[in-house]
Design brief:
184 residues; single chain; alpha/beta
């Protein structure tokens, strides 16, 4: 298929999959690839019944744990994200690795907490950005924009996606999650 959707989950967020699916299917019929970041057996089966299933065998241990970071870094991350984000952090850094599993020429990554309320067809035009990847800019922090990675439009094998995946692997201790302040 030339156009498709990528979603991913681990056991901590798999409860969102049926909710997301019901909203998605109410308005759309593009193929969906479900990337397994550590699902229960029940949800693996559910995903295989709904779409294309991919197991992503990447250990979560590559992401620095709270106790491996400086106290200053922990306080900064918690000030920005609250104290309860630590359980989701491993999955966030695997997002670009999951996107690299896309079998589609044009893909949309959609976070599971995004409520789809209509056709997503127009979003595919954002894949045509010269960089091959489109994200929404968020509020400016200290002059540098944040990029929201809840919905991502991208072309298969775009170099920027590989750069993001490498940054996630190498610099995970510098950021609370996958939404970076800069992309340089």
């Amino acid at each position: 298929a030339s156009k498709g959707i990528i979603v991913a989950s681990d056991v901590a967020q798999e409860w969102l999959l049926p909710w997301w699916w019901d909203h998605y299917k109410a308005f759309n019929n593009f193929p969906v690839t479900f990337v397994d970041l550590g699902l229960s057996q029940e949800m693996k089966t559910w995903c295989q019944e709904k779409g294309h299933y991919v197991h992503l065998p990447v250990a979560g241990i590559f992401v620095a744990e709270k106790n491996e970071l400086s106290e200053t870094t922990v306080l900064e991350f918690e000030r920005e994200n609250g104290r309860h984000f630590w359980n989701s952090r491993r999955a966030w850094f695997r997002k670009p690795l999951a996107c690299l599993q896309s079998p589609y020429t044009a893909s949309l990554w959609i976070d599971l907490d995004c409520e789809i309320r209509g056709s997503i067809e127009p979003l595919f035009s954002l894949c045509d950005h010269p960089s091959g990847l489109s994200l929404a800019k968020e509020n400016q922090t200290n002059g540098a924009p944040w990029f929201n990675s809840g919905v991502i439009a991208f072309q298969k094998q775009t170099p920027l996606l590989y750069k993001w995946a490498l940054k996630s692997l190498e610099d995970h201790d510098k950021y609370p999650g996958d939404q970076y302040r800069d992309w340089e």
